[in-house]
Fold each of these.
Amino acid sequence: MRPAPTPGRYPVRFGMAELLRDADRPNAWMITVDGVAQSHVNLDDPTDLEFDYIRRIADVIDCLGEGPLDALHVGGAACTLPRYVAASRPRSRQLVFDADGELVALIREHLGLKGLKVRVGDGREGVSARYDASADLVVVDAFERGVFAGGLATVEFTNEVARVLRPAGTYLANVSDGPNLPFLRRFLATLATSFPHIALLAEPGVLRGRRFGNVVVAASRIELPVVALTRRAASSPYPARCVAGEDLRELQGKAKPITDAVPMPSPVPPKDVFGVF
């Protein structure tokens, strides 16, 4: 039997991690790195999702039809979403890539990773090594010190994701942006080079450029479940908007795709915007 998790501070590759006990749930834990919240997991109930953006990613997955999935995750931390998929879709085959080996070791020791396959390494390289049409789902949620991990927002990486996905597969990414959404607009243009169907989920204040925040973007070669997602987003405890079709193309505007040759880093979040309060 694995020992009970030990709250404390632990050095990891990208900073100082802290393992915090949830005061309201007896076996739930928060992981932060340099004060920025990375993951929240409830070991008694993997379907209990604390972070709004994770709930939105899960909503998209829930609307993809029934049955197990072959899923790739770039960015794992405490593996909140892989745990959710394992619980909600038994017999799913999942592979998680995470660049922070020390953080993976910390999670494995204190929170366990039973039944999950996690590889330490560069997520872009990991995806590029996968077979054609081998995945139903690719999820990218990879940040380094609050910034979307380099090389994951480009046309070249997007092409690799499209290659690895099956014809009806779905690409999900969590990005963050602030006023005027310059990074998001170019990220949408990047996805459009490989995927004809795109939708996003975000709080209205973020979409209006009033505050910095997360945006969940879904892309596919087939139509996305926009009606179902719109309904779920509107009924959420923290309501969000689902933007697709002409509204999304208007948001994208004349933005140009991001390439390896001319990269664009995501904006650095304002201090404490994703911290633990």
Amino acid sequence: MDTGSAQFLSSPAGGDLLAAAREARALPLHRRAPSLEGRGSGEEIRAALQMDDLRQRALERCPHADVLLFTKDALEQATAWPVAAERAERWGAPIDVPLTDLTCGIGLDALATALTGRPVVAFERDPARAVLLTHNARALGVEDLVTVRAEDALVAEPAGRLAYFDPDRRAGGERTRDPDAFEPPLPVWDGLLGRFERAMVKLPPVVEGFHDLEGAEEVVSLGGRARERRLFVGSWDGQPAKRALALPSGRSVAGDGAPWAAARAVTEGDWLFDPDVSVTLAGLVGDLAERDGLEGAHPEVPYLVGAAPNDTAPGHWMQVSSVLPAKPKAVNPWLAAHEVGNLTIRKRGIDQKATALRKKLRPKGKRAATLVFTRDLRDRWVCYACLG
């Protein structure tokens, strides 16, 4: 998006055209543009319709999407709102201490922080995005708390107590996990972040070669999907070396990466635990087992076993009703005998996709069940059938 389009969309006239575009959502696609004729130029109408499409896509990430402005690239990297809101409460400093957002983009993280009452100094070197951020702060009523700096933080060299850093992971046009290919790249991070008392870096959940920077790590999931890995740089009192956080529940586990628990055979009546993806990516399966008194179900596959479920562990509990060979001729009779029609499939440690497994099964009935396809202690494929 160019600066002219950003300025128009953030103007009163642009707001009126965006409101008309929203009213036209119910129309067939080919009639949306004609319905806006006379309300702006052809270019302005196209920009409004494109922005309305982005707003609809953004609703799954942010409850405020219908009043905010986005770009396609910035939206693809934007933090989901519950994750941004949780982070906004984590700075551990008096509320009047400002946060410097070094690579702000369209500003969801900055806005979530400002909504807590903390001032934010937001750096964004793209002038169009800086215009959108200014609009977004005004739209959420936090313009007095968000100072937009339309410049490159590397050049401006800000300093202070708190910094948030979200480097661009699509600088070359394609998503990458290599911090040396981020923008700014890894070699300059130390000099930039070292100007602050404490900093938090947002990284992809799976990232390569960033351990040249010292700091605690935290992996965050939302709704069972890994969202980000956080790196804590500087003086963070009380932050564990490794932590997994599952949202929206807020369940977490912390540790140093303890060895996995000894494995034993899973039998009928056992409670099988599938750790949240944040736990596995943070390398905390052993720490979780140690904390909650759980055993392993396999020496290499991260399922755990317990005598009873607890509501503190990030993940999903299932009680094993039957242990079956992982073959349709064994599983389908079990489904029929238990009148299972609502079927969930989980799998770890086997090289077959869940969709391929599902195609071979014949659920029919009113009951619900989960089938866990994995490997047993002898590395045979097995199915743990769990009712409910």
